Amino acid sequence: xxxxxxxxxxxxxxxxxxxxxxxxxxxxxxxxxxxxxxxxxxxxxxxxxxxxxxxxxxxxxxxxxxxxxxxxxxxxxxxxxxxxxxxxxxxxxxxxxxxxxxxxxxxxxxxxxxxxxxxxxxxxxxx
Length: 127
Description:
Elements: E1 2-7, H1 11-24, E2 28-34, H2 35-41, E3 50-56, H3 58-67, E4 77-84, E5 87-93, H4 95-102, H5 106-126
Helix pairs in contact: 1-5, 3-5, 4-5
């Protein structure tokens, strides 16, 4: 269900490299949520780093939405760069498995498999 890779890079370097990898694979970064900073700004003692990248390929998103508009709630794809016990990791919830829980449409499964392949490549590129 998850694809998570540990990298020897710093958190900052891994996040920067992920942004480059996303664009290289034909996707765009819609937004980066700095969850760690948000929690700390709310007064929570959170020592780990965590940035969530919302990434999207407009053509793939349009295919999904043209079949089932309800799936807008599963878009865009999210890739996280985070630290855990001194280690930097990059990961995601696999799109094909997530979509399989929401739809059994073969076209949607095909799109999800293509997106999953690309997002895994992004993580591997960034590591």
